[in-house]
Amino acid sequence: MIEGAQHFPDYLDATAQSALLADLRRVVAEAPLYTPTMPRTGKPLSVRMTNCGALGWLTDKSGGYRYQATHPETGQPWPAIPASLLQLWSNVASGAPAPEACLINFYADRTKMGLHVDRDEETLDAPVVSVSLGDDAWFRIGGLDRRDKTERVLLRSGDVFVMGGSARLAYHGIDRILPGTSMLLKGGGRINLTLRRVTRPA
Ligand code: MD3
Ligand code: FE
After folding, report:
1. Which residues have C-beta within 8 Å of that of residue 127, sequence separation ≥ 6?
2. Distance 169 CA to ligand 2 centre (A)
3. Is 160 in the pocket of ligand 1 (CB under 6 A)?
């Protein structure tokens, strides 16, 4: 795997996963999941999203990919990042500037995410830290060129994946989720959180 990518299987035990899920239910009560749309075409993405933190990532037909401080449908500021996630960040990204955004992706059974690079952040001085909850997913990670060889990694509930160094600009995506592989979410599906630094630290 590309330098800077680190997988921590079972980072969160069952108790920690349930506690984090309770935190996320409070976030989603204030900042409901919505269906983002592609720049220009307005085609809906299959993943549903929301955010917590000072900034949230979003995309829509008119404004394209961007970070903004408010929910696109409610107009309200995003809820704060739960303390448990700030603690997790300081444990796995120690020394990095504090995260400003936590993107929450919800995958239903058929949701995929095509191969892409995350480069809407103003700074790459921090890794992206991801936490998976719910059903297993086949994650695909390649290199800095779309044509580089890729490999797949099974991301399971409680896993943490950190992309720093060269991996920060690596192509990656989700091929598919494996329905019925976790009991954490009553209705099934998968949640992925990505914690990110967006602005340059002062
Ligand atoms: C590698 N999310 O939100 S998480 C995304 O499972 C995203 O929802 C996927 O890709 C998901 O942008 C993958 C792991 C991940 C996140 C960000 C990365 C891998 C990454 C940034 C750079 C390289
Ligand atoms: Fe990504």
Report:
1. 4, 93, 96, 162, 163, 164, 165, 167, 168
2. 9
3. no
Q: 20-35, pLDDT tens digit by residue?
A: 999 999 999 999 999 9
Q: Which CATH superfamily is domain 5-196 in?
A: Alpha-ketoglutarate-dependent dioxygenase AlkB-like (2.60.120.590)
Q: pLDDT (tens digit, 9 = 90+) per residue, 34-62?
A: 999 999 999 999 999 999 999 999 999 99
Rounded mean pLDDT of the chain? Answer: 97
CA distance 194 to 51: 9
Q: Tell whether ligand 1 has an atom less than 6 A from the beta carbon of residue 128.
A: yes
How far is the centre of ligand 2, averaged over its atoms, from the C-alpha of 49 (Å)? 13
Q: What global pTM score does this model have?
A: 0.97
Q: Hey, what amino acid is at 33?
A: L
